[in-house]
Write a sequence for this structure.
């Protein structure tokens, strides 16, 4: 359909007087940037964030700036490259050697007890920061409302305990994506639940490269695995069937998400893998299928093998993505073997 | 932490004017590269002169509407068959019947119809994509219903056989009863009856997703989501032209 749109009134360029079409980001005649003030503000914000070592905030500011720059401009190219550098620095900082804090040094001096206290402090900090994010996610009206709606639908089929259990499992999976997106400063919508489908998050900005995309994609199943393991631990302690059923469901759903097709998390993980790494992933899937006979792994294997023939493999290997994918396939496949008593949850 | 050093230094960037290569630094047409002197158009975000705009629009309007629709129908039908094949293939491979495959079907059909329409989209292509997606869902759902019916018939057959095996059923007189039945069943149905029966089967098949949805709302939601994907992919905003816009009377200093 051709739309010969009149649309919004064009702005006149303050420098040369040329009318600027509403969708253009710079005057086509003298190249004055339309959002010059915002760009300078965002650059200053990013610089301040770097000064306090908040790389995620700097990334968020630069990504916002990128949206205001003409894609064919030199500034766009330089800012894109800078975002890539910052994002890689963020990953290498996490995997690099960490210098012990003075607190840790003091704790080490106290021997085994000190080490235990330090580990407890680390675990507590980890749980509290993640719990804060999980609670913060519930303050979004759309997320909470759609979550309750989904729980209601599942309730009518499987009862309230299982319904709320699976909705929380899906929520934790989605918050894994949210945490990774925040880490890389990528704008996205809050999770929205769709009964029968799961939940979706729509990205407002694109990941810079396949590595970033894989980290964001696989963060969901990693958090989902954490939730399933926690629920499984509760099941082992209490021996209440519904916990086992929720753990089994959580493992199955997260494994399903690893199918490397379409918009599923597995497809995002696979984008970062070279051809050789994809063969390794296929081999891991095959081994787990022989070990567990889980039918879903056949689907994973077929889809993964198909990417060898049709999908475009990455040029650079991403060992982290491969390790995460293989680890997820391994543990989640084993978890699908959880024997749940045949009572209605 | 230290500032990453790879690439050009971001600190030295200015955000007053866009820096481009020399060819694009003045008001030139994105199509032919010629300088624009008086006015320009914006075609999908690109600065375009009047001549190029006219050429692009003429190209867009080329070909017959019926031809495009027939191509969209053919490709969409192929995608629907492929989608149904994927559904049955996965069921055969894994033993699971994934209702979620319906969404993949929606995307396949939607994409195929869009390709057939030369990327135009629009209401009639949206309706075509939705109809073909729904038909693919009908085919997969009909097999579910057929399987259930088969089970019921088999169960009924078994109970009839059990009854036939009882002493009362093998009593004399059975042959006469069967003989009395025979003329009724051997009547060939009239063409009208066949047409009515076929019509009824088609209506029932198309009602299958809704009937299944009454007992399983999730099934209906997934089908709805598949239809939404097919509809979304054929939205009719693919080509936007705005303008004309006045170029500067005098160049910038």
């Amino acid at each position: 359909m051709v739309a010969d749109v009149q649309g919004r009134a064009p702005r006149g360029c303050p420098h040369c007087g040329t009318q600027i079409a509403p969708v253009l980001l710079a005057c086509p005649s003298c190249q004055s940037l339309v959002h010059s003030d915002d760009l300078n503000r965002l650059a200053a914000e990013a610089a301040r964030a770097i000064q306090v070592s908040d790389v995620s905030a700097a990334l968020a500011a630069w990504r916002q700036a990128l949206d205001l720059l003409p894609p064919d401009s030199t500034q766009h190219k330089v800012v894109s490259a800078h975002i890539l550098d910052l994002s890689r620095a963020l990953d290498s900082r996490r995997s690099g050697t960490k210098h012990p804090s003075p607190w840790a040094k003091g704790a080490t001096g106290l021997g085994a007890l000190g080490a235990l206290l330090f580990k407890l402090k680390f675990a507590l900090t980890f749980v509290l920061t993640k719990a804060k994010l999980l609670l913060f996610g519930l303050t979004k009206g759309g997320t909470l409302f759609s979550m309750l709606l989904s729980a209601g639908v599942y309730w009518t089929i499987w009862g309230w305990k299982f319904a709320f259990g699976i909705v929380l499992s899906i929520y934790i999976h989605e918050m894994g994506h949210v945490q990774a997106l925040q880490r890389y400063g990528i704008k996205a919508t809050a999770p929205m639940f769709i009964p029968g489908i799961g939940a979706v998050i729509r990205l407002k900005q694109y990941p810079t490269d396949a590595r970033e995309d894989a980290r964001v994609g696989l963060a969901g199943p990693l958090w989902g695995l954490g939730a399933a393991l926690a629920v499984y631990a509760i099941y082992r302690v209490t021996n209440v069937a519904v916990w086992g059923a929720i753990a089994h469901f959580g493992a199955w759903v997260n494994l399903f998400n690893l199918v490397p097709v379409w918009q599923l998390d597995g497809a995002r993980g696979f984008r970062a893998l070279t051809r050789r790494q994809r063969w390794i992933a296929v081999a891991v899937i095959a081994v787990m299928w022989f070990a567990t006979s889980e039918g879903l792994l056949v689907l994973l294997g077929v889809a993964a093998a198909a990417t060898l023939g049709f999908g475009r493999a990455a040029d650079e290997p991403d060992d982290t993505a491969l390790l995460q994918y293989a680890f997820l396939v391994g543990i989640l496949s084993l978890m699908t073997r959880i024997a749940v008593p045949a009572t209605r949850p | 932490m230290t500032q990453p050093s790879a690439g050009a230094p971001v600190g030295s960037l200015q955000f007053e004017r866009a820096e481009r290569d020399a060819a694009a630094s003045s008001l030139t047409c994105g199509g032919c590269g010629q300088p624009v002197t008086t006015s320009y158009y914006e075609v999908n975000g690109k600065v375009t002169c009047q001549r190029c705009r006219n050429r692009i629009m003429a190209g867009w309007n080329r070909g017959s509407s019926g031809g495009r629709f027939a191509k969209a129908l053919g490709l969409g039908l192929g995608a629907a068959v492929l989608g149904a094949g994927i559904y049955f293939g996965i069921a055969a491979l894994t033993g699971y019947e994934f209702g979620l495959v319906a969404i993949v079907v929606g995307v396949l059909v939607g994409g195929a119809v869009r390709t057939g329409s030369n990327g135009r989209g629009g209401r009639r292509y949206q309706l075509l994509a939705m109809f073909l997606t729904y038909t693919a869902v009908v085919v997969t759902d009909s097999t579910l219903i057929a399987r259930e019916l088969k089970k019921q018939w088999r169960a009924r057959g078994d109970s009839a056989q059990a009854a036939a095996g009882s002493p009362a059923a093998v009593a004399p007189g059975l042959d006469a009863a069967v003989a009395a039945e025979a003329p009724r069943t051997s009547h060939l149905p009239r063409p009208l009856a066949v047409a009515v029966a076929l019509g009824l089967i088609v209506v029932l098949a198309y009602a299958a997703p809704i009937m299944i949805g009454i007992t399983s709302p999730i099934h209906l939601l997934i089908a709805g989501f598949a239809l939404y994907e097919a509809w979304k992919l054929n939205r009719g905003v693919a080509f936007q032209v705005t303008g004309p816009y006045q170029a500067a009377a005098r160049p910038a200093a």
